[in-house]
Design brief:
Blueprint (H helix, E strand, L loop, with lengths): L1 E6 L4 E8 L3 E9 L1 H5 L6 H23 L8 E7 L3 H17 L4 E5 H7 L11 E6 L4 E8 L2 E7 L5 H11 L7 H8 L23 H16 L6 H26 L4 E5 L6 H14 L4 E3 L10 H13 L20
Parallel strand pairs: 1-4, 4-5, 6-9, 9-10
Antiparallel strand pairs: 1-2, 2-3, 6-7, 7-8
Helix pairs in contact: 2-3, 4-10, 5-7, 6-8, 8-9
This protein binds adenosine-5'-triphosphate, magnesium ion and fe (iii) ion.
C-alpha cells in the first residue's frame, strides 16, 4: 500500500510517499522560513504564494525519490486542518486534483493526528496511549484510545508552548522560529530567575503560558530601563525550566489518572532537548513501565510523512472524502 501525502497547513510545503503507514519512501519538505524571518512570524499571504510555487516540484520530487509513479499509488492523503486557510487550500486542491486525475481515494487528515502518528516511524503504537502535543499552535494532552480515536484531556488556555518560545526569543533578539536557539542557550545557563509555573499542582490538566511570557518580558524590560544587562543564557534556562517543569508535572498527573503503557511526545517542541531529558528522567522514577516514544527531530516539525502515517489508519477504516472536501482552519479533537 502506497500513500501520496500532502502537508501545507503553515509554512512548510511537503509531499511524501509512505508505504503501509510505517516506511518513508520520500518526504520532501520545502520550508519558507527565510521568507518569514524578517517579519518575525508567518505571513499568511506570503505562505500561500510559496505553497503554490513549490507544490508541483514537491510532488515530482517525492515520486522520483520514492521511485514510484501515479499508477503505483493506493490513495492520496492531505492535511485539511487545522492551519492557515490559504495555506491549507493549496494542499487540499493539489491532493483533490491528483486523486481525481488518477482515480485514487482521497483521505482527509487532521494535522494534529499527523504529529502524533509521526511516532509510528519509531515503533508500533500500543493503545490506549497518552500524547503530549506541543507545537507552534497547540499544547494538549491527548488520549489516543484506539487507532485514530483522540480525546483532549488537557490543553493550554492561552499561548501554545512553541508560541511562547518564539515570543520570548524575539525579546532575546533571536529570529523566528526561536525554539531551537533558546533550547541551546538554556543548556549554557542556570534557572536563576524562577519564573512562575502557572497552573502547576492544580487539579486539572490544563496549561497557561502567557503569564510566563509576560514575566519574562517584564524582567528584560525592567533591566533595560535601569541600564542593567541580564545573562541571556540564564534567562533562556529560567524560561525553559518553567515550561518544562509544567509540561512534565502535568504529564505525570495525566499518567496517574489515565494508565497507559506508552507516552508519545509530538509536535515541533518535542525536538526540545531539555523536555526530552526531563521527561525521560521523570518517567524513570515515577513510571518506569511507561515507554516514551519521541519521533526523530526531522519528523517532529511539519512534514507530509506524518500525514501518510495517520492516513494509513483512516484508509483501513475507509474514511474517504470526495471532491467537496474543504479546508477546516479550526479543526480540533473533541474534549474528553
Ligand atoms: P501546529 O502544529 O500547532 O499547527 P506548527 O505546525 O506551526 O503549529 P510545528 O511546526 O509543529 O508547529 O512546531 C514549530 C514550533 O516548534 C515553533 O514554535 C518552534 O519554535 C518550536 N520548536 C522547534 N524546535 C524547538 C526546540 N528545540 N525547543 C523548543 N521549541 C522548538
Ligand atoms: Mg512550521
Ligand atoms: Fe504542526
Amino acid at each position: 500500500e502506497l500513500i501520496l501525502a500532502f502537508e501545507s497547513s503553515c509554512d512548510e510545503t511537503s509531499v511524501a510517499v509512505v508505504e503501509n503507514g510505517v516506511t518513508i519512501l520520500s518526504n520532501i519538505i520545502a520550508t519558507q522560513i527565510n521568507s518569514h524571518k524578517r517579519f518575525g512570524g508567518v505571513v499568511p499571504e506570503v505562505a500561500s504564494r510559496h505553497h503554490v510555487e513549490q507544490i508541483t516540484d514537491c510532488i515530482n520530487l517525492a515520486l522520483a525519490e520514492a521511485k514510484v509513479s501515479y499508477a503505483d499509488l493506493t490513495a492520496v492523503a492531505v492535511t485539511y486542518g487545522p492551519g492557515l486557510v490559504g495555506s491549507l487550500l493549496i494542499g487540499v486542491t493539489a491532493a483533490k486534483t491528483v486523486a481525481y486525475a488518477h482515480h485514487l481515494p482521497l483521505i482527509p487528515v487532521n494535522h494534529m493526528a499527523g504529529h502524533i502518528y509521526a511516532a509510528r516511524f519509531v515503533k508500533p503504537l500500543v493503545y490506549p496511549l497518552l500524547a503530549l502535543m506541543v507545537s507552534g499552535g497547540h499544547t494538549e494532552l491527548v488520549m489516543v484510545t484506539a487507532p485514530g480515536e483522540f480525546a483532549i484531556i488537557g490543553e493550554t488556555r492561552d499561548d501554545a508552548a512553541g508560541e511562547a518560545y518564539d515570543k520570548i526569543g524575539r525579546v532575546l533578539g533571536i529570529t523566528y522560529p526561536a525554539g531551537k536557539e533558546v533550547d541551546r542557550l538554556a543548556h549554557l545557563g542556570q534557572d536563576t530567575f524562577h519564573f512562575p509555573r502557572a497552573m502547576d499542582g492544580e487539579a486539572n490538566l490544563d496549561f497557561s503560558f502567557s503569564g510566563l511570557k509576560s514575566a519574562f518580558i517584564n524582567t528584560v524590560h525592567h533591566a533595560d530601563q535601569i541600564g542593567e544587562t541580564l545573562d541571556r543564557n540564564d534567562l533562556a534556562a529560567s524560561f525553559q525550566a518553567a515550561v518544562v517543569d509544567v509540561l512534565v508535572d502535568k504529564t505525570m498527573q495525566a499518567l496517574r489518572e489515565h494508565p497507559v503503557s506508552q507516552l508519545v511526545i509530538a509536535g515541533g517542541v518535542a525536538a526540545n532537548q531539555g523536555l526530552r531529558e526531563a521527561m525521560t528522567a521523570a518517567l524513570a522514577t515515577q513510571f518506569p513501565a511507561v515507554d516514551v516514544v519521541i519521533p526523530p527531530v526531522r519528523l517532529t516539525g511539519d512534514n507530509a510523512a506524518m500525514i501518510g502515517a495517520a492516513a494509513h489508519i483512516e484508509l483501513a477504516k475507509q474514511h474517504f472524502a470526495d471532491e467537496t472536501l474543504n479546508a477546516v482552519p479550526n479543526l480540533n479533537f473533541a474534549r474528553a
